[in-house]
Task: structure prediction
Amino acid sequence: MTLPTAPIPQPSTPITNALRIVPKTETETILLEALKESDTMFRALRDRVAVLQASQILNDTYCNKLRIQLAHKEKKKGKQTLGKLMGNGLPRMLSGDAFYEQVVQFTEWQRSRGGDEDGC
Result:
């Protein structure tokens, strides 16, 4: 998602020049102090906007990286192995009709998944 961009405005020249005047009356002093305070707030907010924009760029980059990693993980998860007949790794006595039935079911399952018959 691309956010619209706009340049950060710089203080205008008349305001910068007005900050340099020497006040002659009490009213001019009050107004000059208010202008200085407003200019200070403007500069702080302008700096904050720059920090937030930089943070947003880093967050977008990080989110894109995570999105790619998640897509890769989901793609990798979709690839399943053909399984194991004796999946727990524990030794078993391989005799009887129950084991033969497991072999038959396993072979059918492999064929349905597209694997070869001998499990290699």
In short: Residues 1-79 form one domain. Residues 40 and 47 are 11 Å apart (CA to CA). The first helix runs from residue 13 to 18.
